[in-house]
Amino acid sequence: MPELPEVETTRRGIQNQLTGARISAIVVRNPALRWPVAPDLDAILRGQRILDVGRRAKYLLIECEQGTLIIHLGMSGSLRFVTADTPIEKHDHIDLLLDNGHILRYRDPRRFGAVLWQYGPVLLHPLLTKLGPEPLSDAFDGSVLFDATRKRGSAIKLTIMDNHVVVGVGNIYANEALFHAGIAPTRSARSLTAEECGRLAAEIRTVLTRAIAAGGSTLRDFVDAIGKPGYFQQSYFVYGRSEQACLRCGSVIRQIRQGQRSSFFCPHCQPC
Ligand code: ZN
Fold first, then answer.
1. What was the pLDDT predicted at 217?
2. Which of 44, 48, 155, 178 ranks highest by number of CB atoms within 10 Å?
3. Ligand 1 centroid vs 242 CA: distance in angstroms?
4. Domains along the chain?
5. What does the alpha-carbon distance between residue 171 and residue 184 come to, in Å, rounded to a whole number?
6. Lowest mean pLDDT: which of 10-14, 48-52, 70-74, 151-155?
7. Ligand 1 mean position to 195 CA, how many Å?
């Protein structure tokens, strides 16, 4: 599943070619995404200039003159630039054609993604109104996390993956941030001290920032029509390292299930 760093890298990869261009057409070959693509989307978008490409959580926001095209990559979606003679493959559901000659192609084999239109201020869209703060913004820090966790008896890992608390902290990055902060994923959220919340918030920022930086090297893929943006080649301290030695202390990394997702942690570096 594309996580926040992949979405942010996608945003940076498409921003320059999209901003300032005018939309010539949108071709929808298969509207059956997570929600049906509006049948009048081509009529709405045609002729509109793109003002900027933003992001909120894992939603890409293509800001146009009359509103915003919201794109979510779902479980398996990707965007890339293609040329007019690039063969259309099975899961290439949507093309956005621009007057500067670029074609942005949306591919989504599992079709859990979304392409939605919102007139007016995009943050009023029902999918966006209840989202918590952006982890890389000034709106998120240790004191925000401390306040948000006071009444939560659920495990801290599930709490930081809750979009109402902070957006965009997926499974990989939750595991890694908790390891670097020295906090067991099973700890009750409200048991964290202010100091621990400060450490955890800082580590969330660090792991996401590092992943985005790793994604920078894949940016070229978005414009040369060759790349398949996916998970960046990164090494993790605990994620996916069940039964292997902790890179910090040598203890055996343990794997458990929390909320239907795998948690990985070092029992020595992250005491319960
Ligand atoms: Zn360890």
1. 53
2. 178
3. 12
4. 4-124 (3.20.190.10), 142-265 (1.10.8.50)
5. 14
6. 10-14
7. 20
